[in-house]
Structures are given as C-alpha cells and as structure tokens.
Amino acid sequence: MATPKLAFLPYPPEEESKPSRTAGLSLFWRTFVLLSLLLVGSVFAWTQTLRELESEPRAIQTARQIASLVNLSRAAVMYTDAITRVSLFKTMRDEEHVVIVPREPKDLIEPMENGELNRFISEELTQRLGPGTMVAGRVNGKDGLWIGFTIDKDLFWLQTNLERFDTPAGKTWLIWLTTAAALSLAGAAWIARLINRPLKDLSFAASRVREGDFEASELDESVATSEIREVNVGFNRMTQKLAMIEQERAVMLAGISHDLRTPLARLRLETELSVTDIHARENMASDIAQLDAIIGKFLDYARPGNMELTAVSLNKTVETCLLSLKKRPDIAFKVAMEDRLLVMADEVELQRIITNLLENAARYGKSMDTGMADIEISARGLDKQVLLRLRDHGQGVAADQLKQLTTPFFRGEAARTSANGTGLGLSIVEKTVSRMGGKLELSNANSGGLCANIRLQRAPAGST
Description:
Elements: E1 6-8, H1 27-78, H2 82-96, E2 99-102, E3 109-110, H3 116-129, E4 134-139, E5 142-151, E6 154-160, H4 172-210, H5 226-274, H6 278-301, E7 310-313, H7 314-323, E8 331-337, E9 342-345, H8 347-364, E10 373-381, E11 385-391, H9 413-416, H10 425-435, E12 439-444, E13 450-457
C-alpha cells in the first residue's frame, strides 16, 4: 500500500481577491454632524442678518459724525484770518489728526474701496454736505478719508482716518458668537450621544445573543423614554425565550444521543454475533456506522454556541489531523505553512473543522485522470489574523452553487450520488469558524479545484 506524498512548498500567492469593504459612519457621528451643520448654518444666517441690519444705521451714524467734523472745520476756516488759519490747521493736525489742504485741479483722486458701508457713507455725506461734495479714499498717493468741500470759491480737502468714526461692536460679539457656537456643538454632541446610547446598548446586547450569551444581554426596562422602554422589554422577553429554547434543545440533544446511539450499539453487537454471512455482516455493520456518523453530524450542527477560545498551535493541529489520513493511498498532500502560527480557537473544534475540510476534499476533490486527491494546505500570518487555505484539484463547484455549499442539507452535484454525505459538513465548518470569530470563504481556484480560505483570530504575542 502506497503512502501519501508529503511535500513542503513555498506559500502560493492568493488567487482570490479580498472582498471590498465600505467604510460606514456610526449613528453618533452622523447625528452629530447633521446637528452641527444645522447649528452652524443657523448661526451663520443670524450673523449675516444682524450685519445687514446693522450696516445702514452704522453708516448713517458715521456719516453724521464726518459731516459734523466737516461743517465745524468749514466754519473755523471761514471765520479766521490767514495768519490764524495756519495755526488752526496745525492744531487740528496735531490734536485731532485732521488735515485741511487746498484742492488742486491736478490732484490724483481715487475713490473709496467698494463696500456696503462705504457706499452708505458716500451717499449720506453727499446728501448732508451738498451736491458738490467729493469723497475719495486716496489723493495724490496718500490713503485716508478725503472729503472735498468749498468755502465761497475756494476748494479744500479734509483728510482724516475713517477708523476714528467706524465704531464696530469690537470683539465682544465675536466672543459671544464663538461661545454660543461651542455650547451649541457641545449640546449637539450630548443630544447625539443621548439618542445613540439606547441603540448602542441594543447593538451590544444583540451581539451577545448572537454569541449565545443570554445573561449579558439584558437591557434596562426602567428608562424614561416609553418607546425605548418598550423595545427593551420586548428584547428581554425574546432573549429569555431564546435561552429557554436553547436549554430545551440541549436537553433534547442529550436525549437523542442516548436514545439512538445505545440501540445502535446493541444492534451492531448482535449483528456481529448472530449473522454468519461475512459480507452481510460487514454491510450491516457499515450501515450502522453510517447511521451513527449521521447522528454525530446532526449533533455537531446543533451544538450550542458557547465556546472558550485559547491560544492553539495551528501547525500542530494540522499535523494531528493529517495523521489519520496518512495511510490512505488515494491522497497526496502539499503543505506550506509558516512556523509557530498561533490562533485563538477551541482545539477540539479546530481539529473538527480541518478534518471536515480534509474529508470533503478527499471525497469530492479527486482528479478524473489519476483518481488521486491532491490537497494543498497553506497558512500564513496577517496583521491580526491567520489565513488557512485548503485546496483540492478536483472539478470544483459550479459558480451558482458556491454560495449554497454552506447551506444546511445542500449537496452539490458530486455529492448527490454519494450515500454517505449528509449535506452538513461545510455548514458545520462555517458555523464553528464563525463561533470562533473567524470567517470561511469558498471559491474555485483559477487552475481548477475548490479552495477553502479560513481567517482566524491571531493569538497575541507571548501566548502559549
């Protein structure tokens, strides 16, 4: 009897592309962003409204102050003689920063900058000082507020600084606006958290129920909000009923295991003792063993979901699973695994997973030409996961049946003619891998055959 071939090859590149994942936005951040946009938009709209309502009164007030200054300056110039006028101009320049100079036809005049406030000031000054009034922002290259006025037939410029008349509210309104915006955003965060907390608690409780932990999934039934209270009460009643059903199922499974396997054991013993025909005895014993295996598969699939995960050596587990298949002449292995791969798993369940996949590949992954089942086993560590890959070189599976392979009691075309299959093997594998926090992906290899990719949690460094 030939022994199976065991070879260690470099790890083959993955032939399947990783599924794309769409980054989602949590409910808290979505609510917070929407509330923030609403509040910021409202604050901005109110700010613009207040500025528009303030512009015209502010321009009128500024224009009145400037007009009063021009009228006072005009009166002072009109009622002083030439000698006193020089001293007056000097005093006004030094004390009030107001310069009065003659206006010449050759002066280079530039208008004031465009703006709502400047437009209001120009219109108001022209209305108050007369149609001959000129308002400029620069004369002969000098910046400032320039107002041209006349005294009899003489033309003068009054130059001053617009900032002395511009009386904004200062930075007080900006400080209050910033404070209001900060308080609004803090309130939005608090409201978003208040809205999100019951859903977050419900999500956590649902995840615990999914893992089979019914005791840690109880929600608060005394919350003030009636809708949330009704949801919590309904969820708690549902989990209590599920816990009761789970307990009854465990008791029922124990009874089924005892009630069916005990008479099967007696029947097998009586068959071996009472049937004289060797071939008939072997066939009957095989049928009884098949019934016992089918019962085992049903019990494996219906096993409760609680599982304690520990650091398990994937290399040793695979080696242990291969020992039972070494004597089979119709199987050849190619193994390529990184050294010292540790995963978070239940050791017995991990062996069950690998054994099921190996049996599935040995049964349905044989080559049509050689009749051999060439199985490749490879594993490598990723960032926080370990990827275990088992591949056969059989006919593969039709593309429309790939997603159905893990459906309970579904049997592919190759398995339909076999009387030994129950249609639960891959279903048990997927369910057990999911209970250990992993993921099973089935696909056809590009060069033929079925690939089973298992992603398991990688054990932390230093685990034994």
